[in-house]
Design a protein that fits this description.
The complex is a heterodimer of chains A (351) and B (404). By secondary structure, chain A is mainly α. Helix content of chain A is 69%, strand content 2%. Chain A has one domain. Chain A has 13 helices and two strands; from the N terminus they run H-H-H-E-E-H-H-H-H-H-H-H-H-H-H. In chain B, a hairpin with a 7-residue loop joins strand 5 and strand 6. The chains are: A mainly alpha (351), B mainly alpha (404). The interface between A and B is medium-sized, with 28 and 30 residues.
């Protein structure tokens, strides 16, 4: 009994450290990718000085963040001001912990699950922590004692709340089909290309995608930090690594959101035409991880593509899109899905 | 408390209730191009009342011009609308030439037209690119800046400077056009329509862009005329008024071009008018460069145009004129003169009073931005902050020109 517990603790610790390191490095490289993708879209070269092809740029950025003067402006609410970047950075990491990054693999004669926590309420857990992330932005905006920051914080809190509803509602379609909240189960059910939920939930996917875009506060929904209106938005008063944490949390959020979309609608770690669910050899497990990463990278690219193409919404347009269109559409889609599931059994089994 | 706060007492605008939120848009704000201040009273995101302020970029150019010789003033005009300085330079030189009654050769007029139209394109590239940036679409801005760079190369080859061009002199050009001039201009003309088209594809029919700009801060024909609007912002309201057509100068009557006009006078119409004007400027430049005549690069007015240095050393008359121009300057007849051109931003008027001396007695510039900024308060009241930002960038208010 004790040995089992200890081996579990060791296994999870090692996996957790690897996951944390991977996500942090990933986030750093996504910032580089963002700049590179932007430069491709804009017909520029992009960062290419630090290291070959600019690959050491994230390292240089990180060092710069630490070496910059750590300034706390006068008259800020110190406790909240210092707490905010942390609150913003932790929830996305917790979400990353609950995403199944791969199938179970056999290593050293032990079955290891490539998921930190397989909760039977996985999706609820994710939504719960996603909404806590708003507090970081909101507190940061409020505690900064700056009007632009305050407006950025207010904008972001109202935006997140509005779009969380649509996002949470849209995902119900998948839950009705899967009959479970566990992400691992949801992935296992999408065991062939045709069974990816995106084919059965196209509208649900669209709503989820748009709402995720708004949750990430990226163009066209980047109102909380709309530079030309609010200077820097909620992070106007933040400098050095405190700003860096906001930045990193944003990109971790981008990664986990892309991974979540792939997991819910695009079969997660499943590979089309290859049955890896029943095979727990090491190679297949790694292939599964690569499959999920490729899907994630694709969605990250789509998010960047949109960012460097579209203008941003105005505040009232954003609200009316969220409340008057997306939420209604999500409700209608739930009803349609429910009817399909009840009336047509083949809709659930599908091919 | 301190002297600082006492000095700033006048900026504290009393509000009746505490629900209102005072926000300083500017003077240093990413969307206030240059340094414009706009104190806005907000109700949530909505602007209840705005208090625009001017003067943060005032450099007293009109007073400064009184102590400069006529050719030196050209360098001041660079710093007014720094986005399209060649047009300002030409406005000044044309005004002084009108005082002196000088007729420039056709080649000079054509080269000036090319530069003024390049300046118009440059100005619209920047202002419409920035409109995109202010609405969150950054990419088109950089597409435009590549074209702007090509224009800068032409200007650099001609004048030696990029921003402070000091293009042309009273009575002609500073020097003959460089050998690469035609090739450079053709280079630019070749790539420009494609970029313009790309930008159109990126934004013009984009649903978000249209939602953001249509019906935002509109102004009626009558109000626009009352405020003294000119140029693209007036044409966007539907008034067909272009000084190039109404009072042609510098051979503009010889070119075939049209004046685009809008309907509603909102941000979207201003955008469309400017985009089409670039197309028309492209047509004008093409005609001008195709039919660029040969000839001297200055008028035959030795008492105004400085002779070449090698002539000064070898030729008696040249030396005398050089001495006269340097020591006594250009002396226009006594009187007051007004001359205006269609600068990229609107009617740029130059009013000069001469007392017969080498320096102007009094100078006044009619800067189009000044009249636009008067209307800002009316245009942005009742809108959202995002609308105010779009409005200011679509009017293309440039602080350097506004404050002068």
């Amino acid at each position: 009994m004790h040995t089992e517990l200890w081996s579990l603790i060791i296994e999870k610790t090692i996996f957790g450290v690897i996951l944390l390191a991977a996500i942090m490095t990933g986030a750093a490289y996504v910032t580089l990718a963002e700049r590179k993708v932007a430069s491709w879209f804009q017909d520029r070269i992009g960062p290419n000085r630090a290291g070959p092809l600019g690959l050491l740029q994230p390292l240089a950025d990180g060092i710069k963040f630490f070496l910059k003067e750590d300034m706390i402006p006068k008259n800020v609410h110190k406790a909240f001001y210092l707490l905010a970047p942390g609150i913003a950075a932790i929830p996305p990491l917790l979400i990353a912990a609950s995403i199944p990054w791969g199938n179970q693999i056999e290593l050293l004669g032990k079955a290891i699950k490539l998921q930190m926590i397989d909760l039977n309420v996985g999706i609820l857990f994710i939504f719960a922590f996603a909404s806590i992330g708003v507090y970081g932005v909101m507190l940061g905006g409020w505690a900064s004692n700056n009007k632009y920051s305050l407006m950025g914080g207010l904008r972001s809190s109202s935006q997140m709340i509005s779009y969380e509803l649509a996002q949470g509602t849209a995902v119900v379609g998948v839950l009705l089909l899967a009959g479970t909240l566990s992400l691992d189960e949801i992935v296992k059910q999408q065991d062939s290309l045709t069974k990816w939920y995106v084919w059965r939930q196209p509208i649900g996917f669209f709503i989820f995608f748009v709402a995720s875009l708004a949750e990430l506060a990226r163009v066209p929904f980047d109102l909380p930090e709309a530079e030309n209106e609010l200077v820097g938005g909620y992070h106007t008063e933040y400098s050095s690594m405190k700003f860096g944490l906001f930045q990193v949390s944003e990109y971790i959020h981008l990664i986990v959101t892309s991974a979540l979309i792939s997991t819910l609608y695009f079969g997660g770690w499943q590979i089309p035409f290859v049955d890896i669910a029943s095979n727990s050899s090491f190679i297949y497990g790694v292939l599964g991880v690569i499959s999920l990463l490729l899907k994630t990278v694709f969605f990250i690219f789509v998010f960047m593509w949109l960012r460097w193409t579209l203008p941003r919404f105005r505040y009232d347009q954003l609200m009316s899109l969220g409340w008057k269109f997306l939420l209604e559409a999500a409700f209608v889609w739930i009803v349609i899905t429910a009817i399909l599931v009840l009336a047509f059994p083949w809709y659930k089994t599908w091919f | 408390m301190t002297q600082y706060s006492e000095q700033n007492q006048k900026y504290v605008i009393p509000t009746e209730d505490n629900d209102k939120f005072l926000l300083n848009l500017g003077p240093s704000h990413p969307a206030m191009h240059g340094i414009l201040q706009n104190i806005v009273e907000l109700d949530g995101e909505r602007i209840i009342k705005s208090h625009p302020e001017i003067g943060y970029c005032h450099r007293s150019f009109e007073k400064l011009a009184e102590s400069y010789s006529y050719n030196q003033v050209i360098t001041i005009t660079d710093r007014m609308n720094y986005v399209s300085s060649p047009a300002n330079n030409v406005a000044w030189t044309l005004a002084v030439e009108k005082m002196l009654g000088i007729e420039v050769p056709k080649k000079v007029a054509y080269v000036r037209v090319i530069f003024m139209e390049l300046a118009r394109i440059m100005d619209h590239l920047v202002s419409m690119g920035i409109l995109g940036v202010d609405l969150g679409a950054y990419t088109g801005f950089l597409y435009f800046f590549q074209q702007r760079e090509k224009i800068y190369r032409i200007i650099e080859n001609m004048t030696g400077a990029r921003l402070t061009t000091a293009f042309g002199r009273v009575g002609g050009l500073e020097r003959d056009i460089p050998k690469s001039f035609k090739k450079d201009v053709y280079d630019f003309l070749q790539g420009f329509p494609k970029t313009l088209n790309e930008f159109h594809k990126l934004l013009t029919r984009n649903r978000i862009f249209m939602d953001r700009t249509r019906g935002v801060s509109p102004i009626s024909k009558e109000r626009a005329i009352q405020y003294g609007f000119t140029g693209p912002n007036l044409r966007a309201t539907g008034v067909e008024w272009d000084i190039r057509k109404v009072y042609p100068y510098s051979c503009y009557e010889e070119f075939d071009f049209e004046i685009p006009i809008g309907i509603d006078g909102d941000v979207y119409d201003r955008y469309l008018v400017r985009m089409e004007e670039m197309n028309q400027s492209y047509k004008i430049i093409k005609q001008a460069i195709d039919h660029l005549p040969d000839g001297p690069w200055h008028a035959d007015v030795p008492h105004v145009v400085l002779p070449l240095k090698r002539d000064v050393y070898s030729n008696m008359e040249a030396m005398i004129f050089h001495f006269k121009i340097i020591m006594h300057g250009i002396n226009p007849p006594v009187g007051d003169y007004y001359f205006s051109i269609e600068s990229p931003n609107g009617e740029l008027g130059v009013y000069i009073i001469s007392d017969g001396g080498p320096n102007p007695y009094r100078v006044h510039w009619r800067r189009p931005c000044f009249y636009y900024y008067n209307a800002i308060e009316e245009l942005i009241n009742g809108g959202l902050i995002a609308d105010a930002v779009a409005c200011i960038s679509s009017l293309n208010v440039i602080a350097g020109e506004l404050d002068c």
